Amino acid sequence: MLGHVPAPLDLSLVIPVMDEEGNVEELHRRLSSVLDSMPVTAEIVFVDDGSRDATVARLEEVFRADPRVRVVALRRNFGKTAALVAGFAEARGDVVVTMDGDLQDDPAELPRMLAALDADLDLVSGWKRLRHDPWTKRFPSKFFNATVRRFTGIPLHDFNCGFKAYRREVLLDLKLYGELHRFIPVLAYWKGYRVGELAVQHHPRRSGQSKFGAGRLFKGLLDFMKVLFLTRYMQRPLQLFGLLGLVLSGLGVVGLLYLGLLKALGQSVFQAHGPLLFLSGILLISGLQLFVLGLLGEMLRHYGYEPSAEYSVRRRLSRD
Ligand code: UDP
Ligand code: MG
């Protein structure tokens, strides 16, 4: 596994950008001056996520001027999650820090992020305590964060902050696709990584536009159901679908037995108890279907079995 190969650098910054032509140079300037003052070997990996403006041209200039910079330009816009995944695949640092490319995250916070990571954490998530975004974003985001906190029990205020610091091994252990970047702390926590948070400075966006509107709340909540399923029940689908199925079809059977009894006593079931008959039949059939769905889930688990995906190792003591 990649995790056992020593990383050649102390730190990789991974910065996904899409249409940030007015920001990338200034961000690079500020980051460079922070990195110059730190005793670490570092690289800055910019991932261009299909920009249609002059972002790539700006990044080329930055690349030519600074040997610490690397640029990965994707063929089209794949979305922030995919851009992060591309950056992680490129990153060679022992620690990987992600930040947004729009200057809303402050490079000056970098030393504090690393210090927080050093204090026995595997993942430090930024918390935009004083957030400089319109209320149409702040309000849905508060609701989203409260919901995720409530259901997962993870005490973070800001799950979807772009500013995060990771130990390398965390990244190798996450399967990110779709828009799962919003749930990285949840996925990492579920694998047993130590996840914490740090309040960070946040600035208003000065150049370019936000790529995410208020509509992300709904997508986010659907994705949250997916995450709950992936983390809680994917290991044991029959326990979810099977139980639900048994309960529903059990109720159906009870209904049908009751109707059978009435019939035996000479009552007209069709005319007097039509709705109950209908309901019992539906319960029985849909319950059986859910049960079979659980069995299918178990079958997928069986054939998709990967031993290394069943656990996550923190430490090994070994002589080889
Ligand atoms: N971004 C990206 N691909 C996308 C959308 C956004 O790489 O499809 C980048 C964007 O350029 C920025 C970061 O992700 O660097 C966060 O996006 P944005 O600032 O628009 O989000 P907000 O701060 O408004 O939540
Ligand atoms: Mg932003």
Outline the structure in words.
- This protein is α/β, with parallel strands linked by helices and 320 residues long.
- The protein folds into 2 domains: 225 residues, Spore Coat Polysaccharide Biosynthesis Protein SpsA, Chain A (Alpha-Beta Complex), CATH 3.90.550; 67 residues.
- It contains 11 helices and 7 strands.
- Helix 1 links the parallel strand 1 and strand 2.
- Helix 5 runs parallel beside helix 8 and helix 9 runs antiparallel to helix 11.
- The longest helix is centred in the last third of the chain and has 30 residues.
- It is elongated and about 90 Å long.
- The mean pLDDT is 94.
- Magnesium ion binds next to loops.
- The site of magnesium ion (MG) has 5 residues, from loops.
Short description:
The chain has 320 residues and is α/β, with parallel strands linked by helices.
SSE class: alpha/beta
| Ligand names | uridine-5'-diphosphate, magnesium ion
Report on the biggest sheet.
7 strands, mixed
Order of helices and strands: EHEHEHEHEHEHHEHHHH
How many β-strand stretches? 7
CATH homologous superfamily title of the largest domain: Spore Coat Polysaccharide Biosynthesis Protein SpsA, Chain A
| Unreliable stretches covering 5 or more consecutive residues | none
Radius of gyration: 26 Å
Q: Note the beta-strand portion.
A: 5-15%
- Average pLDDT metric: 94
Can you name the CATH architecture of the largest domain?
Alpha-Beta Complex
CATH topology of the largest domain: Spore Coat Polysaccharide Biosynthesis Protein SpsA, Chain A
| Adjacency order of strands in the biggest sheet | 3-2-1-4-6-5-7
